[in-house]
Amino acid sequence: DGSTALVWRGTEDSAVRINASVLLAGATMWSAPVALSEGGPSSRRHAAESPRVVVTPSGAFVAAWIFKWRVQASVLPPGARFWSDPVDLVQHDEMRPNQLAIAASLDGTVTVAWFDMAASDRVAISAADSRLLDWSAPTCISDPVDFVSNPTDFYANDNNRIKIAYAPDGLLSVAWCTSDGSNTRIYAACRDGRTKRWARPVQLSTDANGSDPQIGTSRNGSVAVVWMVRGLKMFASIRESSSERWSTPAILPGGP
Q1: 20 or 129: which carries more pLDDT confidence?
Q2: Is the pTM of this model over 0.85?
């Protein structure tokens, strides 16, 4: 209906929280910020981080974030004044989530994806009907990565490593960047909108040091992934709706 929501990570009284504000359709002022998460110290183990928000076709806002190694989510239903209490999509003793992505389908399903650091950068997915708030158990769609060095700096310096998108027919696509400790590679995987089956992840990048993956879908269900290599060149690969194969990466003109 034209309303807009904003979520962010803020610090107040030395506590880090996830906050939200809404600009209703036709309004000229944003609502007073509200805290969606509990507060915690700024250390990685206890901080609230990686806030994401998406709007569903019905007009509901769904926010997700990480707090104390838990993935949490809250919903603001259409026309409502208050966000729902946070629910846990995954507990801290099940995974060590890092960096979120969120998307909504035309039928109102909301999906959240993240990296599981406890399983060496494995990609995990959880989904829910935004009207029911019944989140599925996380599904891991990629194999663990065998790091040859500690990836802590890699995690801390890049918050643009995973993206997800829905096509109109319900096809769900995920693109991500992961590291073997020496080089970073771009991967993608798709879930059929009808059968709900995941295809095996595919390595899209052939050059080392890929980064900043972006993903988009067309009305006919084609998927495109674009990424950077060494911050100098842009590459793209396309999965046509009539095929399950990704095209050979091509360099895009007019790079940075």
Answers
A1: 20
A2: yes
